[in-house]
Amino acid sequence: MGSVEYISEWLAAIFALIFFYKYRMQPIRLVLLILWIAIIAETAARLWIDAGYTNNHWIYNCYAILFYGLFYKMTYDHIKNSKRKKIVALLSILMLAVIIFRSFTSPFATRFMTHTFNVATAVMVINLMYYAIDLLKSDINFILRERLEAFVFVAYAIFAVSFIPLSPLVFAIWGDFSSSAAQTLSDIQGAILIVMNLILIFGFVWTRKQR
């Protein structure tokens, strides 16, 4: 990850902490934990390589498991309809079970579980779709400035939709690419990550304290 993307992650986490008072009583508060876990994982991955190791995929695998578990829970907590909550809970539990199973049956320490996490990302998008349906069918008055979760979910949805096609290319799952092509794909993914973090920062700053 480039320095600009890394800085954007730090900024998103810092702004989430500064404005935590706005949403500390809401289920979206889990985003603060998600962002700081990302910082810890990325910093640890950099230090691991600096220490002389050639592979840090186990760090990213551990982070991904925590990320999907927390994000699924955060989405579930925002859905009001009991039927949709059950569907999201079932999809999330099944996906987490698959991730845990794959972590024991694949080279977890040396290879990023790209295909498994692609499916997990697809489940994440489906869960967000159920949240959107739930919101559209709700009678509650929607005030954007009091809906931080709208910015959080849109930001992560943008990254998720791009992650599914780009990650197999970045990790050369679908064949080897030239170094320039791989770098271009990585830069695209990095730019999307920056956009995601900018949306998060804007949401933390612009939204009002949630009632």
Helix content: over 70%
Q: Give the biggest beta sheet.
A: none
The chain-level structural class is mainly alpha
Average pLDDT rating: 91
What is the number of helices? 8
Segments where pLDDT lies below 50 for 5+ residues? Answer: none
Kindly state the number of beta strands.
0
C-alpha Rg, in Å? 18 Å
Overall geometric form:
globular
Between the first and last Cα atoms, what is the distance in angstroms?
37 Å
What this model shows, in words?
The chain crosses the membrane at residues 6-23, 30-49, 55-75, 87-105, 117-136, 148-174, 186-206. Keywords: Membrane, Transmembrane, Transmembrane helix. The structure is a single chain. The protein has 211 residues and is an all-alpha fold. The protein has one domain (3-206). The chain is 76% helix and 0% strand. It contains eight helices and no strands. The protein has helices at residues 3-18, 20-23, 30-50, 57-77, 82-105, 114-136, 148-170, 179-206. Helix 3 runs antiparallel to helix 4 (57-77) and helix 6 runs antiparallel to helix 7 (148-170). It is globular and about 55 Å long. The model has no long low-confidence stretch (mean pLDDT 91).
Helix-strand blueprint:
Layout lengths: L2 H16 L1 H4 L6 H21 L6 H21 L4 H24 L8 H23 L11 H23 L8 H28 L5
Helix pairs in contact: 1-3, 1-8, 3-4, 4-5, 4-6, 5-6, 6-7, 7-8
Give the key terms.
single chain; 211 residues; mainly alpha; 8 helices; 76% helix; globular; transmembrane helix; membrane; transmembrane
